[in-house]
Amino acid sequence: MANNKKNPVKIFWTLLIFVLLLAVVASLFWFWLKPSQLSSPDVAAAAYKVSRGDLVVRVAESGNIKALNAADIKSEVEGQTTIISIVEEGTIITPEDVTGGKVLVELDSSEIKERLTQQEITFASAEASFTEAKESYEIQIKQNESDIKAAELKVKFARMDLEKYLGETVVTRLIEVYQQNHAAQIDIASLLQDPNQLGGGAKQSIRELEADIGLKQAELIQAEERLSWTRKLNEKEYVSKDELKSDELNVERRRIDLDKSQTSRQLFQQYDFAKQTEKLFSDYLESLREMERREAEARSRLAQ
């Protein structure tokens, strides 16, 4: 067993010695066969003293160099323009040039100046138009106020005329009925059913007509009584026939006057009162519509 353990060690040392001998023989054989090559200049140049240092790896590759912070300078002039002057190629711009505002490129500004002049003219014209429009606006405001005020006064006066003729109570009721039904037609007959409800000029006219009728009736009664006495006296021949005839004519005259007064009242109620009432009420409604038109026109003109 002890001999078996020592055999591998012997084998290892034997192989190692054999390899070393083989390397020595090969080296001697190499130098022996190539003496000329070892003494050549190329072999001598290839010899270099080894020293410790950094290993530099250089790779040759094609490419483009690009600035890290690049800025494109472009003309902000609209349309096309002509370059009048430009700095020479390769000019180095120093900080002093930047501070001093050195001109690098000069463009033709004649067209821009012309457009600037035109814009200044346009602006001045627009400014003048604005001032004129503003003043017209203020004038229109005052004009609208005057027009609306005049329309309001016309409505007020039209209602006053209506109240003056029919009375405030009747007019208020008529306006309420109109606002509820939106009908401009007035029931004249209902107003004349009770004349005492009327006021103003219409009531005064009816009173005058009624008073005139009453007066004519009293005069007729008086004339008829006188005629009755005259006839009795004539039968007894105390008065002449001429006096009797005169009293008969007087009675007839008084009867005609009464008929005329009654006809005047009928005509007033049927025509004059109805016409005047319709006219004044229509004038009042028209003044309301005109005021609405004035207000609408005022808003329209102000918007313009």
Please, could you describe this protein's structure?
The chain is mostly helical and 304 residues long. The protein has 9 helices and 2 strands; from the N terminus they run αααβαβααααα. Helix 5 (110-166) crosses helix 6 (168-181) and helix 5 packs parallel to helix 8.
Summarize the structure.
With 304 residues, the chain is mainly α.
Which helices and strands, and how do they pair?
Blueprint: H1 2-33, H2 35-38, H3 41-46, E1 83-86, H4 95-100, E2 105-107, H5 110-166, H6 168-181, H7 188-193, H8 200-235, H9 241-303
Antiparallel strand pairs: 1-2
The helicity comes to over 70%
Name the shape in a single word: rod-shaped
Strand order of the largest sheet: 1-2
Tally the helices.
Answer: 9
Number of distinct beta strands: 2
What class, by secondary structure content? mainly alpha
β-strand amount: under 5%
Order of helices and strands: HHHEHEHHHHH
Low-confidence stretches are 1-6
What is the mean predicted local confidence, pLDDT? 82
Question: How far is it from the N-terminal to the C-terminal residue, by CA?
Answer: 129 Å
**Biggest pleated sheet:** 2 strands, antiparallel
Radius of gyration: 67 Å
Keywords:
disordered N terminus, two-stranded antiparallel sheet, rod-shaped, single chain, mainly alpha
